[in-house]
Amino acid sequence: MKLNELLDGHDHLLLQGDPGTRITGGMSFDAHRLTPGSLYIAVPGHHEGGPESIERALRRGAVAVMIEGEVPGLRDLPHDLCVVRVPDTRRAAPVVASRYHGEPGRAMEMVAITGTNGKTSVSYMVESVLKAAEGARVGVIGTSGSRIGSEPIPMPPSVLSTPESPDLQYLLGHMRDRGTTSVVLEATSMALLTHRVDRAFLDVGVFTNLTQDHLDDHGTMENYTNAKLRLFQGLCRRAVVNADDPVSARIQALMPGAVTTYALDAEADYRATDLTVDAAGTRFTLHHDGGKYAAAIPVPGRFSVANALAAVAACHVLGHELGALVDALDRMPPVPGRFERYDTPRGASVVVDYAHSPDSLEKVLTTIRGYATARVITVFGCGGDRDVTKRVIMGKIAGELSDLCVLTSDNPRYEAPEAILDHVVPGLTATGTPFERITDRRRAIRFALGAAGPGDVVLVAGRGSEPDQLVGGELIPFSDMAVVRELAEE
Fold it and tell me: CATH code at 136?
């Protein structure tokens, strides 16, 4: 398409070149990923691009550049290069990317999930019930990558859980072209704040919960909340929200008449009662519109039931038959890294879970405590270069709900691993629970498995299904479950 067609109706100023320049090679914020015929979107401060990378973009074959503000060196660019200025490159990017790919979100059922915890689990549940109930072809975009069913869509390692808008629109176009009927995606707070899911034409936005996390990005809980609320300020047609969380009232005020609620405790459109939890899963009664449905999920815990209610409600709002959706719940496959279980040859049980915030760690440990018949041993740490204030809180939670803790590295990133552990120790010490401090995560898991006897439950928390550990900027292959299986078999 021509650049002026992609920008039609959006505020922009032509600085030089032909506004009818044809874009044939897509677009990107990352200069090194451009191909001949592409549009380079020079987002200030982007780690793989920005105005300082325009010359690199030209060497890669860019035929047009989109900028914001004043950019030094524009006079030195080739005069036939098309350069346009927009007020905000991040706001303009989803407009041009969506149009370039033919506005693919309009062609499929679109569900976006936001909240501190549960995004990945709810997305897997939406996919599972639609597939089991109707044989639907579902696309998933999130923490575990992008795929259609079991077919992964290869993307560069730099692509985020919620991809930047050019990547997201490419993925949606790819999914549409391969017959996908429904797409479910995770919408992180930073993705919403930076307009990545604008112009995705979302049918349903789901809100799970909001607890302390990501204060390193947002500074305050109010800023964090406001970032989440962007999903419900014109980005989706309907909302499905957790009425047990006070933030749900703010969403209902933003979208009067367009909100469906679910809850375990509060009055809601979809409710769950009579929960029975054991190591194999949870049984409950689902209530909706005067009807009762016997339901079961192969995952233990109240939080898992809340996630199931969110998934069923979202699919029902889309028009799918409720009875078939509920019947499909107990046929869900395990969600990788989300309460993923493994029984060791020595008779202990291992749970690998992504719990990396105070709320999620407390919920997982409370669930395990509810069915464990012997000791609970917790292997955990905290991520580097992230919210420091939650570390002592997580130490206290782990100590209060465990019989033995093994404190270890999570993803230190660029922070000193021992310094991270130092922040957690006061919380653990205050509980009086015995703990070992083993920085090397593999050795820590080995110690926990060696200490576990028949009937004990070992929780390996914090990383879930992540395939790599980031230490000092180096990506080291490390899968918690793979390491658990290997060490348990030794």
Answer: 3.40.1190.10
Judged on CB neighbours under 10 Å (0-12, 13-18, 19+), 168 is buried
Q: What is the DSSP string of 151-170?
A: EE----TT--SS--HHHHHH
Report pLDDT for 221: 87
Tokens at 220, concatenated: 């305050």
- Compute the distance between CA of residue 57 and CA of residue 74 in angstroms, rounded to an integer: 14
CATH (domain of 422): 3.90.190.20
Which phi and psi (to 5°) does residue 50 adopt? 90, 170
Chain segment 437-477, per-residue pLDDT in tens: 999 999 999 999 999 999 999 999 999 999 999 898 788 99
Return the exposure string of 95-131: e unless at least 16 CB atoms fall within 10 Å of the residue's CB, then b.
bbbbbbbebbbebbbbbbbbbbbbbbbbbbbbbbbbb
pLDDT averaged over every residue in the chain = 95
380-390 pLDDT, tens digit each: 999 998 889 99
Q: Are residues 281 and 381 in the same domain?
A: no
Average pLDDT over residues 123-141: 96
Per-residue pLDDT at 216 = 64
Boundaries of domain holding 85: 3-100
Amino acid (one-letter) located at 294: A
Can you give 389-456 as a three-state secondary structure string? CHHHHHHHHHHHHCCEEEECCCCCECCCHHHHHHHHHHHHHCCCCCEEECCCHHHHHHHHHHHCCCCC
β partners of residue 475: 470
- State the SS3 of 226-268: HHHHHHHCCCEEEEEEECCCCHHHHHHHHCCCCEEEEECCCCC
Q: In what side-by-side order are the strands of the sheet with 13-16? A: 13-16, 82-85, 62-67, 38-41, 27-28
Amino acid found at 177: D
The whole-number pLDDT of residue 47 equals 81
